Model the fold of this input.
Amino acid sequence: MEKNNFLVKAINKNVRSSPRKLTLVCNFIKGKKADVALRDLEFTRKKIAKDVSKTVKSAIANAENNHQYDIDNLFVKEAFVGKSLVMKRYRPRAKGRASPIKKPFSRITIILEEKQQKKASK
Done:
């Protein structure tokens, strides 16, 4: 099994949004070129798209600075979201009761891949 050396990863931990909301945005950019994904995230109506955009920019910077990859050949291979911690708060209710409020955090992982351009030989 050959190991693919053309992968770059960026992880954004403790993003203050639920994984369910983030998954919608991450599925939207899977398989797209990195610059197209950034453009699409800029015009997405979801507020959390800004954090996903920051993570994609971080992955692009990792590819450029750490591995000297060509930015024009980068694609979003994987974009997935995992659960992180959950802040628990309580809200006062009627008759002296309290109801719990869960404020979830998420972890965004973006994996970029450099696809080599095949040159036609004559």
